[in-house]
């Protein structure tokens, strides 16, 4: 189905007239001590969470109000997006909005957050982007962040996230042909630190061995000899 840009823009313009307007509001969302008057139709049209709530016949539907565990600042930005179509994402709020979009099950906003993450990826944010993409199984973001970590391996080796990686991810990292480091010693030293960080009861697929001749330490995995 082809959506005409002029028609879509006209609809958004019409909805924006009701942004922060009490006229025809028929539902209240409470966040802490802050209350937002909203329009059920718009919430249901954009959010699977609200659509399910309104169809469930739960007490919140009858009382025409619900309490949600999201900061009011984040929810207000989400409402602004729903009513006006404004691009509200910034480096400072994208993580909070991304989480809230998943909580409220707003597919198009989740997509917007993913695209924002991909387009703004940098050494300053790739760790947070990786964590949330991993949490929500965002393949689009993971497929971009993982190569970025390989390319900036020396920086990645200095992060807590590297030490927290599980064995399969570490093996995938060190076996990748795209891993870029200053020298092989950087990889060895990083893995030594990772092994020492791991609790003793963890998977023993990666071990530290001492060379009998040189006394130097080297890394051995279950996939190498």
Automatic annotation (TrEMBL):
Sequence segments annotated as region (Disordered): 206-225
Annotated PROSITE patterns: BTB
Domain BTB intervals: 25-91
InterPro entries: BACK, BTB/POZ_dom, SKP1/BTB/POZ_sf
CDD domains for the chain: BTB_POZ_ZBTB_KLHL-like
Pfam families attached to this UniProt entry: BACK, BTB
Transmembrane domains' residue ranges: none
Protein name: Kelch-like protein 40b isoform X3
């Amino acid at each position: 189905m082809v959506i005409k840009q002029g028609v879509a823009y006209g609809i958004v313009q019409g909805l924006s007239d009701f942004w922060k307007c009490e006229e025809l509001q028929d539902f209240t969302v409470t966040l802490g001590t802050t209350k937002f008057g909203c329009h059920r139709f718009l919430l249901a049209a954009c959010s699977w969470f609200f659509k399910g709530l309104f169809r469930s016949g739960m007490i919140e539907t009858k009382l025409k109000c619900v309490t949600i565990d999201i900061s009011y600042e984040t929810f207000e930005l989400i409402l602004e997006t729903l009513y006006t179509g404004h691009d509200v994402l910034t480096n400072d709020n994208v993580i909070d909005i991304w989480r809230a979009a998943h909580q409220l099950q707003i597919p198009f906003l989740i997509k917007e957050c993913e695209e924002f993450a991909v387009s703004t990826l940098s050494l300053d944010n790739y760790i947070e982007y990786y964590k949330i993409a991993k949490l929500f199984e965002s393949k689009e973001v993971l497929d971009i962040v993982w190569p970025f970590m390989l390319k900036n391996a020396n920086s990645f080796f200095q992060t807590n996230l590297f030490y927290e990686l599980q064995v399969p991810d570490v093996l995938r990292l060190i076996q990748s042909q795209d891993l870029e480091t200053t020298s092989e010693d950087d990889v060895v030293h990083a893995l030594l630190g990772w092994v020492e960080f791991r609790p003793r009861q963890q998977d023993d697929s990666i071990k530290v061995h001492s060379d009998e001749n040189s006394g130097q330490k080297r890394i051995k995995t279950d996939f190498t000899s």
